[in-house]
Write a structure and sequence with these properties.
The longest helix is centred in the last third of the chain and has 27 residues. The chain is globular and about 100 Å long. 22% of the residues lie in helices and 26% in strands. The strands form 14 sheets. Strands 5, 10, 13, 14, 15, 19, 20 and 21 form an eight-stranded mixed β-sheet that branches. Keywords: Hydrolase, Protease, Thiol protease, Ubl conjugation pathway.
């Protein structure tokens, strides 16, 4: 969003020394860019909100929803100006949606911002950086809108447009009695696994019947016995807009991990839902739906990115392809087909036929293509067909490349058509398409589709939707609209249609302001940075290029004007490298795990760098085009070096019996034969296995047949990080025997474990019950009671509860469910427990006291779903034996932590989306009123003299009722002779309004009883920090700023630090703790606060000058370094002059608030006076001790891991690389005020 957010996961990481990060470039503040040629606005990504952007664009391009929202005026929703008034009921979420839709329609900017909207959701900056599921957001956002619109004319907006009805029926084959249950749906959730497409899934859900017969009979209430029956479901009521959610994410219970289903799943552009609905007398056209939005997910189940394909129903955008926009002369009649223009084969043939002897240099071929069609090969064809030379090589039956690939000829036998035919086609192909008016020339028969990817909006063709049927980038949500929904003619190509007057005036004024700012901003950044890798400084080693000495010697950073040509760049490099002799070839290179690899040679000196599509930060390899260090270099993607993990048995005599597995990284060209692995390892013969699962493990290995040994690594589907296993073809040892046997047995499971947890004596404690996925839970339970030989009375007073892998009992499963409906997998364990399962109107909940919940200590309760939060709290307090009113409920989130409190005590559990199986936490303390925060206050204890104000009292005498004192190593607050300990002492909680200022928070904190003993003169003598991970975190400045603007969140904690005198820090000021090193003693003087103004540039030179002025020393006679307490390391801060070097690290170390220093408030800066101390070392004795302890801990962890590997029963598990830890998942919520 879950950004892209993806990193390649390699089982072996390359240890090359020149991995580089992106550089931060500072730009002058510019107004937002205007809309691009599509005339549509995107939405900016706040860090992880691509899922939100995709859904908002879908709602925006649903005109009926947008106009229904616009129809609600200020008299119903309220005014923005009144949102902070205590008695005003301002429905802030619908108001922010109205404003956002108006901006997307009318504001001339490339992308709109959702910051105000997410603020109205109650999200903090942390929420906006997290990835969430768009299907979950769809339900939560609609629920929040329904709550926000209670009491207005739009109270039924969501229900009217999106809610439908499903009816489930069970028909008794004996008495024909029909048992019917009706349920509403907001979206249809359909399966993807083992289903070919949407219509197939709907057929399985709403056409096919499930028959209960044989051992799987149905208990009919009318017949009062088990009978044969048929179960089916039908769509009873269809909404105007149908939302379909595709279940692409599943869980593999064998591997115990989630995975994404990427198989082909088709869906139609128009669908007839009549076969899936109840019979009625409605017109057939009522069942026809047209696709108008496809939300697409790219990535895996642990992260990814969302974008959306949208049909422009009102023709608001300019559906014109960028390569067609600038073509001057129009003649659509001369074009035979769209495919002739799109496919480059015929165009290249036509160009070669015009040349003498049908021969042309490859560089000139690209230039002639640019002149003919008005766009370069890279822009139009490279994404689909690859580089030009690669395309020519792939069509060797038509094109003949010279040995050095510099010229290309058209083969005579590759073209059987007459030359006149080609010339005629040539004339037709190169006719230019016209620029068309937005939405006027295409007609209804040509739908206008756009790909909206956050800020980027591009036109696409309807056939492009088929590309999203399968793969890692595939459709995730589908939106259909009734075909009979017609738009009024005045809405066509009219973005002002339906927008209220006050929003029209607001957008007009904003456009005037934007235009003024753009006219004032008359300069743009037309330069970019290239990383030049110098060929003489590299050598070819282990399949890739590596620097001979160091990265700084082999690579230069060059800032260049991208409007200049490639020839200008070559000339500039010649002037820069005075030592260069001979030819100079520039090639695009990339860093891969194996090292540096050359992909494409740049040609066409007259082309600008923009036309060659060289990106900012591109790696350019400078060489002679043939060899490096005397070694001939192969280039191109075909011979890309692959870093593979090779596993094989240690054949030494000492280890022959124990079958020790050796894992080692090896590099091979992608176009090398797989059999070269045996040659590289000096193994005369063997069997090669590849891991199709992507990680070393038994179940994913596949043997390569002998006839496939001559295939290349790429043809076998291997990539960086893939694993290869080699076994001796004549040996007796087999690494896969145990694993294969285990997998086979797991596939044969067709039973369930049922344990007797009824606290009744039985001969058996656990029994096996055979079952299928269609077996009813009721039948499983009755069979288990019979097997345990328990009393028949238990049939009416018992239930089955799943048992997870930790032994915890989960929510009871209803008897009426099949194993498939209950999502129970074969081979899982169930517990037979006393008590009935909850009914369909009841909830089974876990609850516990406090936020530190140990697994297995939760209590259980069954309540009605219509019970209020207040009554539910009373029942839980009564059952747990607690008394008093000072308690509130919180829902445990996915991280097993206390989530947001259930603030609306009169709301029902159903309205708050509480489900069976959820865990609620009883937290001590009453909730603050709406708009108030409950803030724990800590005292920032300083240890020893530091130049700050300090209490003369014994602070350790004032412990709180909770008795909490935190001590942790940190650079902040360091006050001894070396970076010391930070202690935070808890003082108490205060309750304060979100609209109060920081100064008012300090004043209220000073009224706490323990605070009175410190004798702080005034709030101006206090400095406020947030508490993060039990340490001072973010510095809060500007005493007059309201707390709401800090985006603190509801679980914020504040620590207060005393000052000798008041301070007024500006937004560009950085507060640093400086300590002077004592010569010869490896210690430092007490810390002093230093305020550094970064407004003039946060450079190393600026900081050095500020430190020198502070200590009255010459700037050339000091050295400074930043302390990293978690590593016990000091990183010197040097200041290079640009005339001395232009190499890569200059900028990284010049801007200290970026990498690698990340300088922030509270950091410790060590200062060395070179007049009396010329030692290069900044470290202290405590740093040496800390590093030694870290080494011992790392050694202990390594030994414990080796011991666990030796105890493992499977050999391959010891060679398996541990999985990268995943970030904890967090729940998604939108906070809405009460309007009931």
């Amino acid at each position: 969003m879950f950004g892209d957010l993806f990193e390649e996961e390699y089982s072996t990481v390359s240890n090359n020394q020149y991995g580089k990060g992106k550089k931060l470039k500072t730009k002058a503040l510019e107004p937002p860019a205007p809309r691009e040629f599509t005339n549509l606005s995107g939405i900016r990504n706040q860090g992880g909100t691509c899922y939100l952007n995709s859904l908002l664009q879908t709602l925006h391009f649903t005109p009926e929803f947008r106009e229904a929202l616009f129809s609600l005026g200020p008299e119903e929703l309220g005014l923005f100006e009144d949102k902070d008034k205590p008695d005003a009921k301002v429905r802030i979420i619908p108001l922010q949606l109205q404003r956002l839709f108006a901006q997307l329609l009318l504001l001339d900017q490339e992308a709109a911002s959702t910051t105000d909207l997410t603020d109205s959701f109650g999200w903090t900056s942390n929420e906006e950086m997290r990835q969430h599921d768009v299907q979950e957001l769809n339900r939560i956002l609609f629920s929040a809108l329904e709550t926000s619109l209670v009491g207005t004319s739009g109270h039924d907006l969501i229900n009217r447009l999106y809610h439908g009805t499903i009816v489930n029926q069970i028909v008794c084959k004996e008495c024909k009695n029909v048992s019917e249950r009706q349920e509403d749906f907001l979206d249809l959730t359909v399966a993807v696994k083992n289903v070919s497409g949407l219509e197939d899934a709907l057929w399985n859900m709403y056409v096919e019947e499930e028959v209960f017969d044989c051992d799987n009979l149905y208990h009919c209430g009318t017949c009062d016995r088990l009978v044969q029956a048929a179960k089916s479901a039908k769509l009873r009521k269809l909404p105007p807009f149908l939302t379909v959610s595709l279940l692409r994410f599943n869980f593999d219970f064998v591997k115990c991990e989630r995975y994404k289903e990427t198989s082909c799943y088709t869906f139609p552009l128009q669908i007839n839902l009549k076969p899936f609905c109840e019979q009625s007398e409605l017109d057939d056209l009522e069942y026809i739906y047209d696709l108008f939005s496809v939300i697409i997910h790219k990535g895996g189940c642990y992260g990814g990115h969302y974008h959306v394909y949208i049909k422009d129903v009102d023709h608001l955008g300019n559906w014109q392809f960028q390569e067609e926009k600038s073509k001057p002369d129009v003649n659509l009649k001369d074009l035979q087909s769209e495919e002739e223009i799109d496919h480059p084969l015929m165009i290249l043939k036509a160009i070669l036929l015009e040349e003498e002897n049908n021969l042309i240099p490859v560089d000139q071929l690209g230039q002639k293509l640019l002149k003919k069609i008005g766009i370069s090969w890279n822009k139009k064809y490279r994404k689909q067909h690859g580089p030009l030379r690669k395309f020519l090589q792939l069509h060797s039956q038509i094109f003949l490349l010279s040995s050095d690939e510099s010229t290309v000829r058209l083969l005579k036998n590759g073209s059987l058509q007459a030359e006149s035919d080609f010339q005629r086609n040539d004339r037709q192909i190169f006719k230019m398409l016209p620029p068309e008016s937005p939405g006027l020339n295409n007609g209804i028969s040509c739908p206008h589709w756009f790909d909206i990817n956050d800020s980027k909006v591009q036109p696409i063709r309807e056939k492009d939707i088929e590309q999203q049927f399968q793969g890692k980038e595939s459709a995730y949500m589908l939106f259909y609209r009734k075909s009979q929904l017609q738009r009024p003619p005045e809405a066509r190509a009219n973005p002002r249609y339906g927008v209220p007057c006050h929003l029209l005036n607001e957008m007009d004024a904003a456009n005037i302001e934007l235009q003024t700012k753009r006219e004032e901003c008359d300069s743009a950044n037309n330069t970019f940075e290239l990383h030049l890798h110098l060929g003489p400084q590299y050598h070819f080693f282990n399949g890739a290029l590596h620097p001979v000495v160091s990265q700084t010697e082999s690579m230069w950073d060059l800032t260049f004007d991208k409007r200049k040509t490639l020839g200008d760049l070559r000339q500039s490099i010649f002037q820069l490298l005075e030592f260069w002799e001979g030819d100079m070839v520039l090639s695009v290179a990339k860093l891969v795990p194996a090292g540096l690899h050359i992909y494409q040679t740049l040609g066409g000196d007259e082309l600008t760098l923009c036309e060659t599509e060289i990106a900012d930060g591109e790696d350019i390899f400078v060489w002679n085009g043939v060899e490096v260090g005397g070694v001939h270099i192969q280039t191109g993607i075909d011979c890309e070096p692959l870093l593979l993990n090779v596993l094989h048995l240690d054949t030494s005599s000492e280890r022959e019996k124990c079958c020790q597995v050796i894992e080692s990284p090896h590099v091979f060209p992608a176009n090398a034969e797989v059999g070269t692995v045996l040659t590289a390892l000096a193994i005369p013969a063997g069997v090669i296995f590849i891991n199709s699962a992507g990680c070393p493990g038994g179940e994913g290995w596949t043997a390569i047949p002998k006839e496939d040994m001559r295939k290349t690594f790429r043809e076998q589907g291997l990539r960086n990080g893939s694993s290869i296993l080699i076994q001796d073809s004549h040996g007796d040892n087999s690494l896969l025997t145990k694993e294969e046997k285990w997998v086979t047995s797991m596939n044969e499971i067709d039973w369930l474990h049922v344990k007797n947890l009824c606290q009744l004596e039985s001969e058996e404690k656990q029994v096996k019950i055979s079952a299928t996925v269609n077996t009813m839970v009721f039948d499983i339970r009755i069979k288990a009671i019979k097997e345990f030989k328990l009393m028949k009375e238990l049939a009416d007073n018992s239930c089955l509860r799943p048992i997870d892998r930790h032994g915890k009992l989960l929510c009871p499963v209803p008897d009426s469910y099949t194993l498939k409906e209950a999502e129970l997998k074969m081979g899982s364990s169930l517990g037979l427990c006393l008590g009935k399962a909850p009914s369909s109107s009841q909830l089974f909940l876990f609850f516990a006291m406090g936020s530190d919940v140990q697994p297995g200590t939760e209590m259980e309760i069954i309540v009605e779903e219509t019970i209020s939060v207040r009554d539910c709290l009373k029942l839980m307090l009564k059952k747990s034996g607690l008394q008093g009113d000072a308690w509130h409920l919180r829902k445990m989130d996915w991280c097993y932590e206390a989530g947001e409190p259930l603030c609306e005590e009169d709301a029902t559990l159903k309205e708050l989306l509480i489900c069976s199986g959820d865990t609620l936490l009883l937290i001590e303390g009453q909730l603050p009123p709406p708009g108030f925060l409950k803030v724990p206050i800590w005292w920032y204890q300083l240890q020893g003299p530091s130049g700050h104000w300090e209490s003369h009292q014994d602070q350790t005498n004032y412990t709180s009722s909770r008795g909490r004192v935190w001590r942790a190593a940190s650079s902040q607050g360091a006050s001894g002779n070396e970076p010391a300990q930070v202690s935070l002492l808890y003082l108490g909680d205060i309750e304060i309004s979100e609209d109060a200022t920081l100064a008012e928070l300090k004043s209220q904190a000073m009224t706490l009883l323990p605070f009175l003993e410190f004798g702080v003169p005034s709030p101006a003598h206090l400095r406020a920090w947030t508490v993060e991970r039990k340490l001072p975190g973010r510095l809060l400045r500007t005493d007059r700023q309201p707390l709401r603007e800090y985006k603190l969140g509801r679980r914020i904690e504040i620590c207060l630090e005393p000052l000798q005198k008041g301070e007024n820090l500006g937004p560009q000021d950085v507060l640093l703790r400086t300590q002077v090193r004592i010569p010869g003693e490896r210690t430092y003087t007490p810390a002093l606060d230093l305020v550094w103004n970064t407004a003039q540039g946060g450079t190393a030179g600026s900081l050095r000058q500020r430190v020198a002025d502070f200590y009255c020393l010459p700037v050339e006679k000091i050295e400074i370094a930043k302390y990293f307490p978690e590593k016990f390391e000091w990183l010197p801060i040097s200041s290079w002059n640009q005339q001395i070097t232009k190499r890569k690290k200059k900028k990284k170390q010049d801007y200290l608030q970026g990498a690698p220093y990340y300088l922030k408030d509270g950091d410790t800066i060590g200062v060395k006076n070179l007049l009396i101390d010329d030692d290069d070392d900044f470290s202290t004795i405590r740093d040496d001790i800390g590093k030694e302890k870290q080494k011992q801990r790392a050694l202990g962890r390594r030994k414990s891991q080796e011991a666990l590997h030796e105890q493992s029963s499977y050999i391959l598990s010891s060679a398996e690389t541990p999985a990268r830890p995943r970030a904890p998942e967090t729940s998604l919520s939108i906070h809405v005020g009460s309007f009931r």
